[in-house]
Design a protein that fits this description.
This protein has six helices and eight strands, in the order E-E-H-H-H-H-E-E-E-H-E-H-E-E. The chain has 196 residues and is of the alpha+beta class. It has a single domain, classed as Aminopeptidase, CATH 3.40.630.30. It has an eight-stranded mixed sheet with strand order 1-2-3-4-5-6-8-7, sandwiched between helices. A hairpin with a 2-residue loop joins strand 1 and strand 2. Helix 1 crosses helix 4. The longest helix is centred in the C-terminal third of the chain and has 15 residues. It starts with 6 loop residues before the first strand and ends in a 12-residue tail after the last strand. The relative contact order is 0.16. The structure holds coenzyme A. Coenzyme A (COA) binds next to strand 5, helix 5 and helix 6. This is GNAT family N-acetyltransferase.
Length: 196
């Protein structure tokens, strides 16, 4: 465990983002959008993201750093550099979620998943997802889901390793056909998430 609030995993510290680190989160996002498979991984596009003003990134990071609607988590390596990130979007009962679907219960989706190339295959995704899921459990979300492009086989494999199961549901999105994967988040496992 390091001095900062968060969970240490191997040589990584995992924690929720902080509003003041919006500049480096912007850089991480731009790097993700330049990934060779970004067109299969993200709905956003680098050309559009580059045009966004600082105020957009400040607000985006502020929203992800506090509250219970958006939670962004990062893994930080032993040198203090960002290694990867996961964002959870929480939707209240009856509200449309990020793909416009409604549900009678509270639900959450994992989006914006990125592990920097030099850190892939090192358990970073597992560590960040696990912290994200602990946060979600702590605010009462029973199940998390995500959508992964049918051609993004590495991401599918990585999510499977982290306990996500393909529901068989296929969703047509702007990047093509996506597989819905879910993971139940059982309550009562002793989580008392208070790291926000
Ligand atoms: C997707 C991502 C987060 C996964 O993190 P990672 O650290 O690379 O994942 P891992 O290496 O731990 O796991 C990938 C698994 O898929 C397997 N895999 C890799 N390529 C594969 C392929 N073409 N077909 C099937 N399985 C594959 C790997 O072997 C590995 O499983 P193993 O550890 O049992 O061998 C990361 O690669 C990334 O950021 N990619 C670019 C952006 C992206 O795709 N984001 C997800 C959007 S949904």
């Amino acid at each position: 465990m390091t001095a900062e609030a968060g969970a240490a995993s191997g040589s990584y510290t995992v924690r929720r983002v902080r509003a003041e680190e919006w500049r480096r989160l912007r850089e991480l996002r731009l790097e993700a959008l330049r990934d060779p498979i970004a067109h299969l991984a993200y709905l956003d596009r680098i050309e559009v993201a580059l045009e966004r003003p600082d105020s957009y990134w400040q607000e985006r990071t502020r929203a992800a750093a506090s509250g219970t609607t958006v939670g962004q988590f990062v893994a930080i390596d032993e040198h203090g550099y960002l290694a990867g990130t996961v964002t959870a979007l929480v939707t209240a009962p009856g509200e449309p979620d990020y793909i416009g679907e409604t549900s009678p219960g509270m639900r959450a989706a994992v989006v914006g998943v990125y592990v920097r190339p030099g850190h892939r295959g090192s358990g970073v995704l597992q560590a960040v997802l696990s912290e994200t899921e602990a946060w979600l459990r702590g605010i009462g979300v029973p199940r998390v889901r995500l959508h992964v492009n049918e051609h993004n086989l590495r991401a599918q494999g990585a999510y499977r390793k982290c306990g996500y199961v393909d529901t068989g549901v296929r969703v047509e999105m702007v990047d093509g056909v996506n597989h819905e994967m879910v993971r139940d988040l059982p309550s009562g496992q002793g989580d008392s998430y208070d790291r926000s």
